[in-house]
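Structure in, sequence out. Go:
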């Protein structure tokens, strides 16, 4: 509601109306409007900062309170008209004092946008834009956004139909990151709320609820495989007698250990050492060690054209951070 009035709009039309102040059961004659400045069918109607924002099929417009009279209560704010349409009624989310949404511009490009004051700015993210470009009009209409917060920090995820990925916009850094539901054909999530001191996620395709927990390294009980690929250039043909990975782990129970698989390639990753039976398993030191070093030896001769291609793989429920990789040297 705005100024004590409940507002609604007709689906697919550029007409909206509002109730009397503090009385949602009385809707005065003449308490409706449509935009003469930029007629456009309303897709979503959002209250933001005491104004009404209309996200249409081809534009974003703002209506402000201008009078206490029922018939003249609102008028368009001419300075706040953006030629960007909303792709679907669920393709937006409130993040703080802004609205993040998936829109279509005048050239037909579909991408992420965010409101800044009374302006609308694009927030580019190539993986999201490539994924959106593959959707049909019906699938675009089914795109949804879900927002959640941790204190003053707010994020919003763009969730596409039949896609295990979610493209997450972080308000604090104004950047995107990609997340995925492990071993699934669709991302788990359709709505989020805060309850019992934690974020709770639900999905229209599941009767289960899940929580977001940064200290866990599984996905609804399923093991998550973390893979890190490192490519190191070599000045020329190099015989690698030893390889040391300086790695820190966290999240292990006291006294517990984890394992990491190391594989390598001499041709830029086209063929890897596990294909000829040389996948090295190394044990990561227990949590609390001052320095953790995973060492393997006798990898053989590598040429300078492709350098060293290295793959680190961890499936244990442990967090890790690689601080360096050393070829033919053993740091103290």
């Amino acid at each position: 509601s705005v100024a004590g009035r409940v507002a609604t709009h007709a689906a697919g039309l550029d007409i909206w109306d509002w109730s009397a102040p503090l009385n949602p059961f009385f809707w005065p004659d003449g308490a409706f409007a449509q935009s003469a400045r930029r007629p456009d069918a309303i897709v979503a109607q959002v209250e933001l900062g005491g104004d009404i924002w209309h996200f249409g099929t081809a534009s974003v417009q703002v209506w402000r309170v201008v009078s206490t009279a029922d018939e003249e209560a609102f008028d368009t704010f001419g300075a706040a008209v953006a030629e960007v349409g909303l792709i679907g009624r669920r393709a937006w989310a409130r993040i703080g004092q802004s609205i993040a949404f998936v829109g279509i511009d005048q050239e037909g490009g579909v991408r992420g946008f965010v409101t800044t004051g009374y302006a609308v700015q694009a927030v580019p993210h190539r993986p999201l834009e490539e994924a959106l470009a593959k959707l049909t009009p019906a699938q675009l209409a089914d795109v949804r956004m879900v927002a959640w917060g941790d204190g003053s920090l707010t994020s919003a995820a763009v969730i596409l139909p039949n896609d295990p990925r979610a493209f997450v916009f972080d308000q604090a850094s104004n950047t995107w990151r990609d997340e995925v539901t492990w071993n699934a054909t669709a991302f788990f999530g359709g709505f989020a709320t805060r309850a019992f001191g934690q974020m709770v996620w639900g999905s229209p395709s599941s009767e289960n609820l899940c929580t977001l927990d940064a200290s866990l390294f599984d996905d609804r009980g399923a093991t998550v495989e973390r893979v890190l690929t490192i490519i190191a250039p070599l000045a020329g043909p190099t015989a690698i007698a030893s390889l040391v990975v300086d790695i820190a782990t966290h999240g292990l129970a006291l006294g517990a250990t984890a394992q990491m698989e190391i594989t390598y390639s001499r041709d830029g990753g086209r063929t890897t050492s596990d294909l000829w039976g040389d996948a090295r398993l190394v044990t990561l030191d227990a949590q609390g060690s001052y320095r953790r070093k995973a060492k393997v030896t006798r990898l053989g001769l590598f040429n300078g054209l492709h350098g060293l291609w290295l793959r680190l793989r961890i499936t244990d429920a442990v967090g890790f951070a690689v601080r360096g990789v050393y070829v033919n040297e053993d740091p103290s």
